[in-house]
What does this fold into?
Amino acid sequence: MQEMNLCLRYGSIWWKTGCLKVDSGMIGEDIKTTKYGDIARAVSTMISDVRPPDINKSQWGFEIVPEENKIYYGFLPITGIGKKEIETIIENRPYKSFKDFFLRVAQPNLLSPKKVLTLIKAGCFDSFNANRRQVAEVFIRAIVPRAEKVTLTSINTFKNELRRKDMYVDIVDLWEFKKMAVGKKAKMNKNLEQVFISKYSNYVDYDYINDKLVIDEKSFDKYYKQQVKPLQEYLKTNEAKDMITNIKRREMWLENCGGNVSAWEMETLDLYFTKHELEIAPINKYFELSNFSELPENPKPISYNKWRGNQFPVYDTCQIAGTVIDKNKVKNIVYLLTTDGVVTLKIPSGQFNYYDRMVVEVKNGKKRVIEKSWFEKGSILVVNGYRKETNFFVKKAKNQEHGIMKINRYNQNQIEFLSERKKV
It folds into this structure.
């Protein structure tokens, strides 16, 4: 009755906003910690009433824009955006366009390039241009301007491109040899010695001291300077300048903008406003999935197992799939965002620990992570089990060891999935 009165007096959107703030933990003026999992679960229950963050309309948390009768996603729940960045954004509003934002905020470096790309991926500039990949491309072109000068000191950046030009292969080989075998930090070995004898010994002075090859550096430098002249001339051309510019832009894109727009949303917002990634991947070619909402809440046993005089029900199992948005290590719970909502997975402790641990390789006393937890945020899982009330209990099928598979990578045509953890 109280909820009904509040809805009648203030409108259902105000009631929903209050519920969203409480359920997500985004309430009060001093929010010390951002609970991304709580936020994702809360927003997912009323996704039709929530809009992605907007650079001009969003506030710190979830707020209503009355004229639209919609709730706008706040800046603070965006992964990687902190209080300092939010203050900068709000202090400089309003923005007329992305170019206006760039000139007044990004170009003066009030926000770092990585933070700006986070805002782009989260959809903050959709009101100016809904094509986020296009906005990201424009931004990267702006912050990585065309190279005006290219020198040999940059050769490591574009050596692979130079190798594709047959006329510069020998010069690149010479540059790499110099880097490894000549100078104070050089360490001669048998392989380098063989390279020198076969390629450069007729042009450069050398000697053997204590059965070790010693290259005359002055003689080598003279030969080196003569040989690299054609490459130095090429590096002055517009073609070379365009090449190094495109390489740097591509490197920045690969480092910060991998994946599709749906993956960007999961990375920055912990949920999907556009398409779920499973709506892009051809998941149904590989698995017969069920919708959690269509499964019976109280399944009927198909048989019983007996143990120590007691009977235990056996339920028919099925498969569901979704993206991990949060986990509870104490309760062995994983929250999975499926195409029809958030599902609580209850996992036996042994299985939970098996999939939650990192796989680490130790070589020469150094540790290297070769596989992260399968329950990391953003992992896409296919799980076997059965529904009981509001939970999904993970249970392996007869041909499985644990009942969980992970989609490693995908595109519109195919999926690569893992059924076992990597082994050291």
Q: What stands out?
A: The first helix runs from residue 2 to 10. Confidence is low (pLDDT under 50) at residues 1-10. The longest strand covers residues 318-328.
